[in-house]
């Protein structure tokens, strides 16, 4: 059985950290450090998804703008062109997105509303759990078949 993003959000929680487009880089970086996360969503008026601001955005921005000030608004460095997924997408589908597109965070949007955020770390953990569950099933089947063949089970 493939885990859906909705199931993953139910297991991990739907907590999303966000800032406004006008928040300073310093405020966004502080929030990321405080929550030990690599990105925050940037939410505009009415909670609309305006972008995502990540460690990567800051690193690139500091190289491209040598005089970068931490007082600049997040909107100047945030990623605006977002790839979003739905709760019914599978972990495997999302792993393919992050691998092919070389991104680390996927906002989850259902019926035009933000439902959560998954990171590549969340996806890797879920994929590993799926593989471990499948392996346990196969080991159980092998043990039952060996028992049947040896006559231990009738």
Keywords:
single chain, 154 residues, CBS-domain, two-stranded antiparallel ribbon, 5 helices
Q: Kindly report the CATH topology.
A: CBS-domain
Mean pLDDT: 91
Characterize the biggest β-sheet: 3 strands, mixed
Give the count of structural domains: 1
Describe the protein.
The protein has 154 residues and is an alpha+beta fold. The chain has a single domain, classed as CBS-domain (Roll), CATH 3.10.580.10. 46% of the residues lie in helices and 17% in strands. It is built from five helices and five strands. It has helices spanning 5-12, 25-35, 55-64, 91-101, 120-150; strands spanning 18-19, 39-43, 49-54, 105-110, 113-119. The protein has a three-stranded mixed sheet. A two-stranded antiparallel ribbon has the order 4-5. A hairpin with a 2-residue loop joins strand 4 and strand 5. Helix 4 (91-101) packs across helix 5. It is elongated, with a radius of gyration of 21 Å. 21% of the residues are buried.
Strands, helices and their partners?
Blueprint lengths: L4 H8 L5 E2 L5 H11 L3 E5 L5 E6 H10 L26 H11 L3 E6 L2 E7 H31 L4
Parallel strand pairs: 1-2
Antiparallel strand pairs: 2-3, 4-5
Question: What's this entry about, in short?
Answer:
The chain is of the alpha+beta class and 154 residues long. The chain contains 5 helices and 5 strands; from the N terminus they run αβαββααββα. The mean pLDDT is 91.
């Amino acid at each position: 059985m493939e885990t859906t993003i909705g199931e993953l959000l139910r297991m991990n929680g739907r907590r999303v950290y966000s800032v406004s487009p006008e928040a300073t880089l310093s405020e966004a970086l502080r929030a990321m450090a405080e929550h030990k996360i690599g990105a925050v969503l940037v939410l505009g008026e009415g909670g609309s998804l305006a972008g995502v601001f990540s460690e990567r955005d800051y690193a690139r921005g500091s190289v491209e703008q040598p005089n970068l000030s931490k007082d600049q608004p997040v909107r100047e460095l945030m990623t605006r062109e977002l790839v979003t997924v739905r709760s019914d997408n599978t972990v495997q589908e999302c792993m393919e997105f992050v691998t092919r597109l070389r991104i680390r965070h996927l906002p989850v949007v259902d019926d035009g509303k933000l439902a959560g955020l998954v990171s590549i770390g969340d996806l890797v953990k879920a994929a590993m759990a799926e593989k471990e569950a499948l392996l346990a099933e196969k080991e159980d089947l092998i043990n039952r078949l060996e028992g049947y063949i040896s006559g231990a089970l009738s």
